[in-house]
Automatic annotation (TrEMBL), chain A:
It is found in: Endoplasmic reticulum; Golgi apparatus, cis-Golgi network. InterPro entries: NO_sig/Golgi_transp_ligand-bd, TRAPP_component, TRAPPC6/Trs33. Belongs to the TRAPP small subunits family. BET3 subfamily. Keywords: Endoplasmic reticulum, Golgi apparatus, Neurogenesis. GO terms for biological process: endoplasmic reticulum to Golgi vesicle-mediated transport; nervous system development. The gene is trappc6b. The lineage of its organism: Eukaryota, Metazoa, Chordata, Craniata, Vertebrata. Pfam families: TRAPP (PF04051). This is Trafficking protein particle complex subunit 6B. Transmembrane segments: none annotated. PANTHER family: TRAFFICKING PROTEIN PARTICLE COMPLEX SUBUNIT 6B (PTHR12817:SF3). Component of a transport protein particle (TRAPP) complex that may function in specific stages of inter-organelle traffic. Specifically involved in the early development of neural circuitry, likely by controlling the frequency and amplitude of intracellular calcium transients implicated in the regulation of neuron differentiation and survival. It comes from Sphaeramia orbicularis (orbiculate cardinalfish). GO terms for cellular component: cis-Golgi network; endoplasmic reticulum; trans-Golgi network; TRAPP complex.
From TrEMBL, chain B:
May play a role in vesicular transport from endoplasmic reticulum to Golgi. Its main location: endoplasmic reticulum. It is found in: Endoplasmic reticulum; Golgi apparatus, cis-Golgi network. This is Trafficking protein particle complex subunit. GO terms for cellular component: endoplasmic reticulum; Golgi apparatus; TRAPP complex. Belongs to the TRAPP small subunits family. BET3 subfamily. Keywords: Endoplasmic reticulum, ER-Golgi transport, Golgi apparatus, Lipoprotein, Palmitate, Transport. It comes from the Eukaryota. Homodimer. One of its GO terms (biological process) is Golgi vesicle transport.
Amino acid sequence: IWTTVFGRRMADEALFQFLHYELMQYIYKSADSKETENGRNITKLENMGFRVGQGLIERLTKDTARFKDELDTMKFICKDFWTCVFKKQIDNLRTNHQGIYVLQDNKFRLLSQLSAGKQYLEHAPKYLAFSCGLVRGALSNLGVKSIVTAEVSVMPTILLQKI
Amino acid sequence: MSRQSNRTTDSKKMNSELFTLTYGALVTQLCKDYENDEEVNKQLDKMGYNIGVRLIEDFLARSSIGRCQDFRETADVIAKVAFKMYLGITPSVTNWSPAGDEFSLILESNPLVDFVELPDNHSTLIYSNLLCGILRGALEMVQMAVDVRFVQDTLRGDNVTEIRMKFIKRIEENLPAGDE
């Protein structure tokens, strides 16, 4: 019984990961294979993530009370939203209290399929674009306008910066 | 289906919504990129196939199901284990052909189409066609060539969603090159 329960809980996440991968492949394949296209593809993925993030947060916060301030909102993103999307919370949240937040995920799920190495860092942005959009979209519907970027330092950690 | 605590139900639902919403974004993008529904259907099938050939490994690892003895068993596994595991629904298996090589999966509800409405100019779009590709790709990896198609679709006004699966043939394992 244990195995079945465990399998079930992670399975829908796996399905999403497969879909995300195909989505990435599609966006990149359907563009010309020129260097300059990379930026456009990242933007496309980010925009798709944005719309999905908006839709998700709407349902997630349907019965939630309003947030008292920006930090409260960010904590929600780090805990509830991140858990909903990535099945875990953000590991570390830092802020300069002047509008910049850094969210650290030490085991970012969507990167877990990529193996370590230089090639990894090269391809990581593709894997992060949609998720950045998700966060930006979620924040947008919570009334927070933001720019969300991601960085991969030591794999598979990512740092999201909301400005 | 028994209900668990609210929190678990919610987070399960939320996650299927992530998939549903992402899938919706994908279909929207495809409709933008391609001139006609037929092309979109083909793309969805292709992408589904790519997912299926990898999903099968994931499925076998999670479920520790052994080799199916026959197509009937395959049908049951697909409906009761795979669909339940990945999409949280259990379609019913019906309408077996006399030869036992064809059956239908009836989905009372289809999580992919939650909150989705087809606009008028997409009447031939098979919105959930990804599923057909997934099934086809997955079964090919276990040596079964099948034909999978939608015959009823709630998005197009039918009462239920019906997927028809037909066994074509057993695929022989490929011999490594240079064996001749």
